[in-house]
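Quick one - inputs below.
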Amino acid sequence: MSLIKIILVLLPLSLVYVAFARTRTTHVKAYQRILFLGFIAFIIIAFVFPLPIRKFARSIGMPNGNYLVVYVFVIAFIFSIIAIYLKFNEMSHKIVKLSRRLALLESKIETKKTKK
Amino acid sequence: MYCEEKVITTVLKELFKHFEHVVAVDDGSLDGAFQAARKTRAVVIRHPINLGQGAAIQTGIEYALQDMSAKYFITFDSDGQHRVEDAEKMLRVLKAGNIDVVLGSRFLGKSALPFKKKVFLRSAIYSRNLFSKIKLTDIHNGLRAFNRKVAENLNISMAGMAHASEIIDRIGQYNFRYTEVPITIKYTAYSKAKGQSLFNSVNIVFDLAATKHSRKRP
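Output:
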């Protein structure tokens, strides 16, 4: 396996690592937005100026620009899935805390009623 | 408890023969478990929706912690698979001092585990012990006894079944003094039918890995 292939395999894996590890920082949303804008810009460039994309793709060992576009698309897809998963997890934690608070408050009210 | 209408009254009555205070957390049951539990002397707290066993345990602990005189806490499954005498034995060990957490172990006791479950649990325990400084003979056992210091620091965030591993992590994190005590699990047709699928272990491992990794950095 050539060096560039190893890099192309390791890149999405390290991005996944970073995506999970950075969930608690305040820059999360900004990172996601920068990546999203970067992805959109890449797609536009790929369609308007296919030649430099093709040249770049060939320079890193891909047969043509389509492969590079698909590669970037897969990375963007993985990122989106992780973002959704983390958001879902965060929401679940909030729901658990909220439900617990409600349950404990209800039990307090019940106890007061019973004492009366 | 979750949908334990058939057994909850017996379980709670049995507990009251040996313990003065019992808190039952109904995890959004769809059957009459909540109503059945309320007919006993137990304090019954109801989650508005089903959240998972870990969430229910944490709710029970938070309720019990409000009583400043509460020194010892025991978690006990509501499906009738645990024996109250084991809980008492664990409490005695805890009260003897020098120990913060007492964990029940099926593999030290005489539990007749179903073969599939035995193989699965043994491999889970073996692989967990490889990567943890806390070495145990059983990990996903719901019968535990601990003191107030532990109860205050548990903060179980894994709402589902992964909470068992999280509790062990807390023991390591806070260097709580722990020991295991042999217990016997009553594997009845009812508890077997209620038990979680072995496939759920995939979810547990994934949830633990993702949560641990995402919380490493502040």
